[in-house]
Amino acid sequence: MTSFLSTDRPDQIYRLITPLFIHAGILRCIFTVVGQMTIMRNFETMIGWHRLSIIYFISGIGGYLASSIFVPYMPEVGPAGSQGGVLGALIINVLYNWHFIRRPRKVLLIHLAIAAFLFLTGFVPYIDNWAQLFGFVIGCLLAAALIPYFHFGKQTRHQRIIIVVGSLSITFLIFVILFTTFYAYPIIDNPVFSWLNCPFTNSKVCDHQSLILKNWLPI
């Protein structure tokens, strides 16, 4: 890691990428590896490594960018945003291939249940719901634009173009808003935003997430 060039502005943009490769403990590392070797491995075979890589990394970067804005005092590592993005892409894949999947409603419900479970894990130490939420949204948008759509016809082609252009435009707009907010207002201190990660902000339950780190400053 390098030192800050400015004392009052964030200038270590690489910190949006490096946490994707770091894990807070062996259990989270095992969870990530198992997910990559099972779910993501099969998904990669379906849509290709290049599409999955774009979804994984851009969702993770967007998730950490949102996290740095809404919970700036919470230290975090791990690919929570990326995992949320992959899950969102899996749901879009089910919707895209609805007629080709056996019992698609059951498959969709399973994916939605996993999404709800991951959201609940955001209350566990050092797992950020802001990263997972924004990663999930960005993953859905990118998947809508990148995942192959196996339907044919002139009307379907026009609809596909609208979906691709619309999804990429919204994704670009999200990043513009996040980057603008990040550099214009590097610290947004509002307890309402911290509540999404830990609803017990008035007690010591949230101390382990460093959501009240500002009370300890300067260290």
TrEMBL record:
Its main location: endoplasmic reticulum. GO terms for molecular function: serine-type endopeptidase activity. It holds the Pfam family Rhomboid. One of its GO terms (biological process) is regulation of epidermal growth factor receptor signaling pathway. The chain crosses the membrane at residues 20-40, 52-74, 80-96, 108-127, 133-150, 162-185. GO terms for cellular component: endoplasmic reticulum membrane. Belongs to the peptidase S54 family. It is a multi-pass membrane protein. This is Peptidase S54 rhomboid domain-containing protein. The keyword Acyltransferase does not apply. It is found in: Endoplasmic reticulum membrane. Residues 11-147 form the Peptidase S54 rhomboid domain. Keywords: Endoplasmic reticulum, Membrane, Transmembrane, Transmembrane helix. It comes from Ditylenchus dipsaci.
